[in-house]
Amino acid sequence: MKKLLVSTALIAALALPAFAQEALDPDAKSGGGIVITYKDDVATLDPAIGYDWQNWSMIKSLFDGLMDYTPGTTELRPGLAESYDVSADGMTFTFHLRQGVKFHNGREMTADDVKYSLDRVTTPATQSPGAGFFGAIAGYDAMADGSATSLAGVTVIDPATVEIKLSRPDATFLHVMALNFASVVPKEAVEAANGDFGKMPVGTGAFKLAEWTIGQKLVFAKNPDYWRAGLPYLDTVTFEVGQEPVVALLRLQNGEVDVPGDGIPPAKFQEVMGDPAQAAMVVEGGQLQTGYITLNVKTPPFDNVEVRRAINMAINKDRIVQIINGRAVPANQPLPPSMPGYTKDHAGYAFNPDEAKKMLAEAGLPDGFETELYVMNTDPNPRIAQAIQQDLAAIGVKASIQSIAQANVIEAGGAGTAPMIWSGGMAWIADFPDPSNFYGPILGCSGAVDGGWNWSKFCDPAIDAEATAADSMIDPAAPERMKMWSDVYMKVMEQAPWVPVFNEQRYTMKSARMGGADNLYVDPVSIPVNYDYVYVKE
Amino acid sequence: MAALIFRRLIQSALILLGVSFITFFLLYVLPADPVRQIAGRSATPQTVANIREQLGLDQPFVVQYTRYLAGLFHGDMGRSYLQKTDVTTLIMARLPASLLLMAAGIAAELLIGLSMGVIAAIWRGRAVDNSLMMTSFVTVSAPQFVVALLLLYVFAVKLGWFPIGGYGTPAHLVLPALTLGILGSGWYARIMRSSMIEVLRADFIRTARAKGLARSRVILRHALPNAILPVIAMIGIDIGIFMGGIVVVEGVFGWPGIGQLAWQAIQRIDIPIIMGVTLVSACAIVLGNLLADLVVPLIDPRIRIR
Question: Is the ipTM of this complex over 0.85?
Fold first, then answer.
């Protein structure tokens, strides 16, 4: 597997040197346009609201935040902030803004806009799904309960400087400032849109929205005043929506489409990879994703750790990987291999049905038991559930499959009524490349509440305390911190609330006329591609 | 006539009210929470509670439903939870495309189905009849997705006669309309055939023939208008079937209609959109049936409306 994800950059305790001119691709040509297709319509381009993998990269090209990632990598780099200082205790961040950056409406971006944007995303009225990420900023709680209208911890020092105070140390804070939710937006444009900012976005990004025909297409046009000199290369990016992935593939073969945004349809995967001409158009990369089975530790017999371990040994992960045409690698722990903090030498629970059966007998269940496996009803998830069902039957566990709509699975998981859930279709994909992102909501006590995303309802206060300690360190990439996170996940796996099944690989298909480094086409934060840096060769 | 239309409109309004109640109730009791979909996976319980309150989803069913109805009476179908846009805007942006496709689909259905039915009836019991009826059986049972992809592959990809999906020109309309036409034509062929056979046996046809009228004239002027009545009633029902079936065809051909809007909304429990699309579809069905009832007496003066 290509290792396209590397560990995050160290934060200097003092100011980073200002970025002068970015090294541009010497082969790149400016001009031209590309066509991307999607099955689903684009719901919104409001950076405070958009949380689909589809609009995530689109928003990234329209807006900028104070922090950003080096294209094709998970390395943090300054964005609208030219540099920043971190206080010795890690509680105060001072961002020095780039001068002369203009919004698409022509006005210059200032520190007031940064403050406005953070206030906006944390105000309950905005209904931002990302508000919780800013929980470490001082004054967040008062915003969340409606008793304040402005974040007390965010202060405008002068038009080019903004200071953010935290209420607790948060090693991931710079990653949070690189999330779309932290994008800087102009107040006057938000107000002028009168609630429809998601359809009339105005940012500082490489592209601006030129046209949106609802249900048909969106056209992004190059921002000629973009602050990164020489970028973007493309004049236009056209997103055609409502396109069935199979049809998008036909159109790609016909030269009408450059990137099918939904990827290669599962039913066509072997055909594409078996044809050298088509396979040459495919770029493969890792992604920060893990597919898993949750075992509800509050529901007997899964309250017995021996039973959970037995289930872990009963699942034939290689066979499940085969079901999805080998588009994944088997997993043995919650973190994906490309995530910092991944434990490389961990053996995990080996596939051993005989041993699993013996363990069940020792746990007082020699004849197995009956249970339910919840699964989202879109292909290939029901087929994967059937494979799991067969594996369980081999050790005497009779699991009936509940194949239902995504929202219903999420509801059952949150309410704790599902004994087992196969996470496919809802599997955890990291918001940012930090090991903490796989813990809190899905394995920590905070997510084990009613309606939370911790579907196994696993809550170990001792492990939670270790996680908190790891996140209280100042340097997110410190080796000691990575060791702490590695320990956290190893302790979780001892308790076996999950059966980690696989880590999906990414396969992006692109037309022959598209240029740019391969890692731009499997960019860990811009899916399917990083629009700002790709180009057309002709 | 006017009294009838008035009465039927009142009936229609009651039906729509019933549809709105049932749909709203089903969405209310559904074991899925729209607030979770909006709040996302990193939301705190506080955020979830705030959103629930802002959307009024913490209110009892009766309050929520009456609030929705009150909005509806003012022409307000609410705002999409996830797209944060007025539902009316979203539906109006897509409705023309769906109506166009539906009209073209019905036209194609009638053209193919009625021709098949008439020909089969005339040569009843012969090979042509048998093969046409076999064909109609196949078209009725064929999966939409397969027919759509097959047409797309042959006529767009291989032969290049039509664009590979999309919207905008008459050429874009041909394949999706043909898909719907082929799939629905079987029903019409069967109805038309049996109705035509019955009419051809009638006394007035024998009289017409005895008068020495040309065979084509007997069929087109005398038999057809009498045989077509059950077909017109069928069109009214068909609109309902179309509203359900159009989703797949819109999906394959990338046709920007309301079917796709509904599909996405159902996946994410976007209640205002689901309600809006359901009501608009129900409206189309009710109006289609009303129109069919009103058209029948114009064709056959023997039927009087009371």
Answer: no
* AA letter at A457: K
Neighbours of A145 (CB within 10 A): 12
Question: Do the Cβ atoms of A441 and B42 come within 8 Å?
Answer: yes
Kindly state the percentage of chain A with pLDDT values over 70.
96
Where does residue A257 rank: exposed (0-12), middle (13-18), buried (19+ CB within 10 A)? buried
Give A9's pLDDT tier (boundaries 50, 70, 90).
very low
Answer yes or no: are the C-beta atoms of B164 and B152 closer than 8 Å: yes
Are A221 and A236 within 8 A, CB to CB? yes
The candidate with the shortest Cα–Cα distance to A374, out of A414, A404, A407, A397, is A404
| Chain B residues inside the 8 Å CB shell of A198 | 83-85
Burial of B60-92, coded b for 16+ CB within 10 Å and e otherwise, reads eeeebbeebeeebeeeebbbbbbbbbbbbbbbe
Which residue in chain B is spatially nearest to A193 when comparing CA positions? B85
How far is A137 from A148, CA to CA, in rounded Å? 13
Q: Tell whether the model's pLDDT for residue A4 goes beyond 60.
A: no
Q: Is A247 in Cβ contact with B260 (below 8 Å)?
A: no
Total length of chain A: 538
A393 touches chain B (CB under 8 A): no
- DSSP conformational letter for B79: B
Classify each residue of A440-451 as buried b or exposed e, where b means 16 or more C-beta atoms within 10 Å of its C-beta: bbbbbbbbbeeb
pLDDT digits (tens, 9 = 90+) for B15-38: 999 999 999 999 998 878 888 888
pTM recorded for the entire structure: 0.87
Give the one of A242, A246, A407 whose C-beta lies nearest to B37's C-beta: A407
Interface contact B252-A250, CB threshold 8 A:
no
Whether B240 and A194 have beta carbons less than 8 Å apart is answered as no
Residue A432 · residue A175 · CB < 8 Å: yes
Cis peptide preceding A479, ω within 30 of 0 = no
Q: A15: pLDDT confidence band, cut at 50, 70 and 90?
A: very low
d(CA A521, CA B75): 46
First to last CA, chain B: 8
- CA separation for the pair B194, B230 (Å, rounded): 10
Burial class of residue A176 (count of CB atoms within 10 Å of its CB; 0-12, 13-18, 19+):
buried
Q: Is the peptide bond before A500 cis (omega within 30 degrees of 0)?
A: no
**pLDDT beyond 60 at A388:** yes
Cβ(A373)–Cβ(A345) below 8 Å: no
Answer whether A354 touches B (CB < 8 Å): no
| Half-sphere exposure in the Cβ direction for A372 (13 Å, CA) | 13
Q: Write out chain A residues lying below 8 Å of B254, CB-based.
A: 240-244, 247
On whether any CB of chain B is under 8 Å from the CB of A453, the answer is yes
A296, A410 Cβ separation under 8 angstroms: no
Predicted local distance difference test score (pLDDT) of residue A14 = 36
pLDDT at residue number A22: 67
| Structure confidence by residue, pLDDT tens digits, A278-336 | 999 999 988 889 999 999 999 999 999 999 999 999 999 999 999 998 899 999 999 99
pLDDT in tens, A111-145: 999 999 999 999 988 988 888 899 899 999 999 88
Q: Which residues of B touch A451 (CB under 8 A)?
A: 33, 36, 45, 48
Q: How confident is the model at residue B43 (pLDDT cuts 50, 70, 90)?
A: confident
Which residues in chain A touch residue B44, judged by CB atoms under 8 angstroms apart? 131-132, 135, 144
Provide DSSP, A54-103.
Answer: HHHHHHHHH---SEEE-TTS--EEESSEEEEEE-TTS-EEEEEEPTT-B-
Give the largest CA-CA distance in chain A: 72
From A205-209, A446-450, B112-116, the region with the lowest mean pLDDT: A446-450
